[in-house]
Amino acid sequence: MLRSGGMPSGSVDYETQTKPYVARIRATEAQFAAILTPFAGLDLTGLGGRAVQLAMDYLGLPYVWGGGNINGPSGGGFDCSGLTSYALFKASGGKVTLPRTSETQWNVGTEVPMALAQPGDLLFGNWGAAGPGHVAIYMGNGQMVHAPTTGDVVRVAPVFDGMRARHIL
């Protein structure tokens, strides 16, 4: 292949394998570009950006109720507050240790208007009598990284309506 400058056209392998494979890749190009669009232009510098990056290292890891802590996933995954505990602890070099649940994490830091939320700020939602039932990490551009619920995985999603932000790092 090197001598011919790539897969020579006209060969059986080129016509039956390479050419159809390249066509399939090109056909999905727009789909993959759409996935990456929310990440374009994100400022992931500083401690907040580091927290986002640390959480994103676990994209696709299963949600496990009670899973995760400052040392990483446990029981095979993270729950929402386990993910935030891990990411902020590691991003801060061990200086920020969050309480275990979303309800108690709400009491840490300073609330900021959603319009002023920065990457690494915590987002709280699913409000009930005891406070927030869910916590996520703000990425910027209206996106968050979180461990959503049983049967799901750590993933990026648009910020939910009704979420409130707190600045910690």
Automatic annotation (TrEMBL):
InterPro entries: NLP_P60_dom, Papain-like_cys_pep_sf, PG_Endopeptidase_C40. Keywords: Hydrolase, Protease, Thiol protease. Pfam families: NLPC_P60. Residues 45-169 form the NlpC/P60 domain. The keyword Iron-sulfur does not apply. One of its GO terms (molecular function) is cysteine-type peptidase activity. GO terms for biological process: proteolysis. Belongs to the peptidase C40 family. This is Unannotated protein. It comes from freshwater metagenome.
